[in-house]
Amino acid sequence: MQTQLTQTLECGTDEAGRGCLAGPVTAAAVILPPSYTHPLLTDSKKLTAKQRHALREEIKNVALAYGIAHVSPQRIDEINILNASIEAMQLAITAMARVPETILVDGNKFKPYQDIPYHCIIGGDGKYRNIAAASILAKTTRDDLMLEYHQKHPHYGWDTNKGYPTTKHRNGIRTHGAVDIHRKTFALLPKQLSLDL
Predict the structure, then answer these.
(1) Rounded to two decimals, what is the model's pTM?
(2) How does residue 197 score in pLDDT terms, banded at 50, 70 and 90?
């Protein structure tokens, strides 16, 4: 895994929750010291929950700057999930205490941000440490939030599926209907079966 793409002050950014039926899309942006390495630092999806949470504290301690942001289900329904994901990443960059000179984005879509050069990298969370760090902050923050939502709405299995379209989640929607944090523009049930929204 590479540390940086350029020699500038570089941040990585990534989102979590893009494919979910419920909850926000959450993004993080991280600037790591150029020399920083960690043997476990990789795409958050390849790590256990315990590893992710341990790395989250490490990243927050060593990062030159980091920011985290959520975009709500209502906003997702308003502007669509792609635009909401980009908006969340840009809000996370804005939340950092330092302004990056270059932005590395996980994925293939982004929009210009404050005239700062950016590079879209498919699979970037497995290639660049600062994107991997952002993926870990985004996922752990969002997972913790979905656990809080689970306490209020226990019918959907958000403690395990975190809002993704699992059988348990869809059975909960079928039985109990949708709640305020469901994304109403998403196919909550296959073929949009009768559902009181």
Answers:
(1) 0.92
(2) very low
